[in-house]
Design a protein that fits this description.
It is a single chain. This protein is mainly β and about 200 residues long. It has one domain: Pnp Oxidase, Chain A, CATH 2.30.110. Helices cover about 10% and strands about 35% of the residues. It is built from 4 helices and 14 strands. It has helices at about 15-20, 70-80, 90-100, 110; strands at about 25, 25-30, 35-40, 45-50, 55-60, 80-85, 115-120, 125, 130-145, 150-160, 165, 170, 180, 185-190. Strand 7 (about 115-120) and strand 8 (about 125) form a beta hairpin. The longest helix has 9 residues, at about 70-80.
Amino acid sequence: MFYEPKDGHDLPHNPFNAIVTPRPIGWVSTRGANGVDNLAPYSFFNAVAYTPPQVMFASTGVKPDQVDAKDSVANIRDTGVFAMNVVSYALRDAMNASSQSLPADQDEFTHAGLEKAQCRTIDCPYVAAAPAVLECKLSQIVPLRGDTNTMIIGEVTGIHMRDDCIKDGIFDVSSFSPLSRLGYRDYAAITELFALSRPDDTR
């Protein structure tokens, strides 16, 4: 099968997201200028640079109670900061609950039954139970093609790791089974690891 996206695919559901998989989930926490906290998962998310460490996520769509954005983007635009919470398998239901479209004045932490903690380098909450959290200061807001597509790039200014996830000096992802987004309604938890050495690896 071949199709050009501009012409459509004639399938029951868009296969694009199922092709670009697995995708890490950026669970973005923000605090609005009005003091209301927000939490939402984004699967267009990744790390993009080491030095200084930087991450990106992209938001698609808008909310009727925000101006040309969803709550996360609107809050970041107003405050210049956000936190990226890593989603473990144990937090899958809370993550899913936080994806519900709620009014801008409602707190998804409360809705999902999650305990908050306070970031150290920025004025922002984070998920206390998350295996790792990246505190971020806004670097760029990049409009993407399309009416409601926006990319946020942030510089990581603080990193939290749960002590139980550090084993023999490494951050051990097998200790919490990170969740990833597949296509449609499908997710996957990482439970098996294998190592490959690069051909020019001298270690």
